[in-house]
Every structure is written in structure tokens, then in C-alpha cells.
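S.,

Sequence below, as promised.
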Amino acid sequence: MDVISAKRGARFQYTPEIPVQLNPIFDWPPNLSGIVRWLAASWLTISMQLFCLALACVVYFVFQPTADEMKNLSFDWIASIWLRNLIIMLSVAGLLHLYFYTFRKQGSDLKYEEQGQKRNSKVHNFGNQVLDNMFWTLGSGVLIWSTYEVLYFWLSVNGHLPMLVIVDNPVWFVAMFVLIPIWSSMHFYWIHRWLHWPPLYKVAHALHHRNVNIGPWAGISMHPIEHIFYFSSFLIHFVILSHPLHFLFHAYYNTIGASTSHCGFEGLQIGGKKRVDLGNFFHQLHHKHIKCNYGTIEMPWDRWFGSFHDGTDEATKRVRKRKW
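The prediction came back faster than expected:
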């Protein structure tokens, strides 16, 4: 299929080049050059993955409570975990929102949807989309994320979890950073697909889908039930050999990564050119059409199960025929 110019996006203000491309690691026959380019774009440029890794290193080496402090559950270190996660989310989602929506530093350049965040809205708490999203993100999201994190560190320092010693297995240590987004994608597809089961959708997931024109605060704006399921992705570190840096990277990938992927803009533009990839058109299509793209571009679950929307008009027609 030929690449279609961004200027031909009929239902979006801005559409990147389509069809949407998925991680080539699962292509057959194997596409070695494509895999190398994909990994290079993820790890050798200014990317969300690299930012999450850098943040994990800073937090672990500078702001992490000591092992002795974490051996016993106490208010001080538990509160410090919650507070640092609160600050991280306020900083990332808050700065993205201020830059793109409050001060409109980029105007509408690379913005998917023409509309902004809703005010005087009947479907959002407080009648305001941003306040609604902040409430669920900070009130429920940060709390449940922090609960998983506290449980992980408490169990790990007490010797109850498999702990990777870097010098014993440096290859696995590095490989885990590449594998975490793939695991997260698989977990997200199946959890997300289940959340679209009509009874569960009505009870929990509909809250996230209040956001059609998504913004940074929409990333982890979810019902507490959904937060519990969504963050259960972290439980992989309770059963396989990994390091606290892996857990922190995973946590930031699933939280601040969600803020960047929901920011509503394809990327950060400097000097008239996109310098940093931010938005995720694959997931933007999910918020637009709902019955498609339940996973992420890291794994082709949607292609395998017939729910893949690649951004073309043909895909839109096909998706509209789906029941859920």
C-alpha cells in the first residue's frame, strides 16, 4: 500500500503518514534492517523510552529510600514514593498541557484534532475535561501506581522477589529494557480488550473514553478498577529476574508514557520541524473510533485479531462494522 500524505487526513486536522506502521520485530519474513531502525529510533534519539530510562536512573540513584528504610512499612518512605510520583506526574503532564494547550506554543501544528479540551462539559466531573482528568490521574492513578511500587520495593529488600545482579547477567539486564515495552503491549491489549466488554466498559472504562479529544492529563485518567488492572503489568517483576531500574522504567513507561501518547500532538516542533515524537496516532484512532487498536504499535495483536485500524478510509469502514 502506498504511503498517503498527511494532507489527505479527512477526519483529523493533522494526520501523519499512513498506513500506521507496527514494530517490525514480528514481521515475516524477518526484516532485520527494519528492526534495527525501530530500535535506533527508540533508543538512539530523543525518545520517550530514553527519557523514562534516564528518569529511572535519576530517581533510583538520587531519590530512592535506602534498603534499611524500606524493610519495614512506615509512613515516611511510603509517603516519599507517593510524593515523588505525584511530582513526576504533575511535572510531565502539567508541562505538556501548559505548553500545548494553555500557552499554545505550537498552535495547531501537528495537532490531531481541531478541538481543544472541553469546558462546560456535562460528561466530565467539575464540568471541565482537564480538572476531571487531573482528579482521576492524581487521586486514583498516582495512588494505585505508588501502591504497586511500594509493595515491590518492600518485598524486594526483604528478599522475597527474584533480584537481578547486573554483573552476573549484563545481557539480560540490557535486554529487559527492550522487552518491557513488548510485555506492556501484550498485557495492555488483553486488559484493554476485556475492559471493552460492555458490562465492564460501562462500569469502569467509559470514564477514560469521556476523552475523545485527548490531552496529556487523559493518559492515566481512569476508574480505580481500571487502574488496578492497568498497573498489574508491573507484577511481571514479582516473578521474573529483574532489577529495580527495570521496575522504575516500566512504571514511567506506563504512566508518563501515557501522558505523552495522549498529548494530542504528533510531536514537539522546533524551528518548523518535528524534533521529538510525542503523540500516538495508533491510539488516537482508538479514541476516535473506539472499536479498534486495543493494543499498541509494539505488538500486532490488533492485526492478528482483526481490530487493526491503520488510518486509511478502508480501515474506518471495516471498523464501523464491528460490534465491540
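The chain has twelve helices and two strands.

Coffee later?
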